[in-house]
């Protein structure tokens, strides 16, 4: 039997440590090289996709790398999105059947980090105001959901900015709004792996960094200004009217105000699956709540003062995430100027 002296043990221990260090250095160097190579390709794609023709650049990059990238321009039918008189019915309740809605969207970067944001807009002026204020710098994260206006789309604007989702139906409160929201959450789960997608309005001012901070802190699947124990309007005196035939339940599920709420990727993926079985709801915010309820996800309240439903001219506090109600011409720009001044103060 061999007997090792203490000095021998020290020698072998030193050798083992030196070998481990050499192995670690080799592996870490290889890993760093791989990471740097991937990072450089990713940055090249980002820069080129903004400067040059996105489709040509990414298709060429895909051929070089032999990786699977989603279709860059999607022209497909999305099942279960328009309710009409020709739809199937379950009793007296309208359900989404096999009807489809066409949509077209530029998919620039499928794997960006952070948040995808979709304001439901009507006017070109409203979209321009968002691009030059809170949406500035959110290239490939900001997409406008646009339906037809008197039978036509803003095709030139679509091709110029590549930030518009075109939806094939006429712009109208209720039907178009509900469809826009459903299309957004379905395609944002199909073509992007971004952790959160946000639906907001044309007259909302959104603080991107603050929202991302809140979502990372709460790990929310469904985040926004929470409404609990709400009931449907049964008097036919408002656009929010819902007859018992349209919506037989006596109350709404927990839902977030449509002025600005976020939905996680896993929640969106579930929503896309349950959409065909959810009754038609012209109130898009309640419709999202119904899908979240069917998916058994929890609604996370944003907290007091983080989502304001009505415009307050001088409210620019640090806890504010979404400020709604900037409807008049120039209000978005004026409020943005106040935000910038407050940051410098």
UniProtKB/TrEMBL annotation:
The keyword Membrane applies. Keywords: Glycosyltransferase, Golgi apparatus, Membrane, Signal-anchor, Transferase, Transmembrane, Transmembrane helix. It comes from Sphaeroforma arctica JP610. Pfam families: Galactosyl_T. This is Hexosyltransferase. Its EC number is 2.4.1.-. Belongs to the glycosyltransferase 31 family. It comes from the Eukaryota. It is found in: Golgi apparatus membrane. InterPro entries: Glyco_trans_31 (IPR002659). GO terms for biological process: protein O-linked glycosylation. One of its GO terms (molecular function) is hexosyltransferase activity. Its main location: Golgi. GO terms for cellular component: Golgi membrane. It is a single-pass type II membrane protein.
